[in-house]
Amino acid sequence: MKAEVQSNTARAAAAKRAAARAAAVRAATAKATAEKAASARADAVAEEAKESAAKVAAVKASAPRATPARRPSARTARAAEEIIAPEEAAPIIDQLSPSTTPAVDDAPVDIERGTTAPIAPEAVVSAPTEVVAPEPDVAPVSEVVETAAEPDAPAGHALVVRGLVKRFGDSVAVDRIDLTVPAGSFYGIVGPNGAGKTTTLSIIAGLLRPDAGTVRVSGIDQAVHPLAAKKVLGVLPDRLRTFDRLTGRQLLHYYGLLRGLPSAVVEKRVADLARAFDLTGALSRVVSDYSAGMTKKIMLAGAMIHSPRVLVLDEPFESVDPVSSGVILDILRAYVAHGGTVVLSSHGMDLVERVCSRIAIIVGGEVLAEGTVDEVRAGQTLEQRFVELSGSAGEVEGLEWLHTFSD
Ligand SMILES: Nc1ncnc2c1ncn2[C@@H]1O[C@H](COP(=O)(O)OP(=O)(O)OP(=O)(O)O)[C@@H](O)[C@H]1O
Predict the structure, then answer these.
(1) Which of the residues 28, 81, 227, 315 could staple to 89 if both were Cys, CB 3.0 to 4.6 A apart?
(2) Low complexity bias located where (predicted)?
């Protein structure tokens, strides 16, 4: 009995020793694997940092000198990250910061808000060290992409949207929207306030990620090849957030360089665009001093500087004076006549009716009418048809107190 107990104790001790040895082996293996992974990550980070530094140095070398301004604030950085993916914003903010920007009088550039221009693949720089997790709704744009169109892309279409859905909490902003925009056309999206136009255009532009559905730009799937899709696009977003502490010239210059254009080409295009948009005299002023219409025009110029195939313009004529609107229309018409495609949203029914070849009326996140202007109007004016589909607006009754003039 005693011998049996001793033998059991010996077996238990042996098992314990074996378990300890196995645990030690596992720990050693895990440590080695972790060290290997850490070393690989460090190599990758070093490689990325090297690449980023080279690209940013190229941008800085050819960019115009900056005007004196303030240091970028946390708010500035956050705003920039709202518009472009944080991993793209970080190095750009860094490179525009006082410690690194070679400027006249050693003056730093401040960027008050984020850029709205999508970044061309060749200009994208990844954050060399710490990468902030992207906003869940903001589509990442730092992936390596192929530039080839999808083989099953419908021919002759600049834009094909299918089953697009976007929810904000419990509310559905975009509800299974389908759009087909022929290449070389002027396409208008109209709808009442809150209909989902901006949300739809933001998804098309790759600035917002849909909950469902697909977007193909010139045959390129926006979700699969976001950078290639962005390269084809020029975008004027609804909110005019930009690097408004830069002068107009600097802003356009950066837009051009970020799109991968050579400095000499950018310089020429900046001059051409400024002339066309009547901004030559304002090029040396900081954009924060521009009027709303001037800001819209400089950003429109920025959206065009890389001669994209498709322009996505959210309310391009809002705040713009009639003379400038006429010029912009002429520019856009010539662009379309030469094969470009314009997709715009507008509340100007007359303008849309006059300019667009196809129209979609969106109400409550759904397309209620789509087709050629005549098809959508269905024998009425566009405004009548719009009112018919939108339903009645707010109630005017109950505001009698407004007429009592309480002073
Ligand atoms: N970031 C957001 N968070 C929550 N709700 C949002 C957000 N963006 C848009 N929405 C909501 O989605 C709906 C569609 O908004 P959207 O801006 O797309 O409308 P719109 O047709 O462009 O309107 P408008 O003509 O007034 O510019 C609205 O109800 C709006 O409140």
Answers:
(1) 81
(2) 34-43, 54-78
Check residue 22 and give its pLDDT.
Answer: 58
CB of 170 within 6 A of ligand 1: the answer is no
Q: What is the rounded CA–CA span in Å between residue 355 and residue 373?
A: 10
Is 390 touching ligand 1 by the criterion CB < 6 Å? no
Decide whether any atom of ligand 1 lies within 6 Å of the 199 Cβ. yes
CB of 237 closer than 6 A to ligand 1?
Answer: no
Kindly tell me if the per-residue pLDDT of 76 is higher than 60.
Answer: no
Q: Could you give the ipTM of this predicted complex?
A: 0.98
pLDDT value of position 31: 60
Which residues are CB-neighbours of 186 under 8 A, at least 6 positions away?
332, 333, 336, 341, 342, 344, 355, 356, 357, 358
Q: Residue whose CA is closest, atom 9 of ligand 1?
A: 199
Res 397: pLDDT: 80
C-alpha span between 384 and 406 (Å, rounded): 37
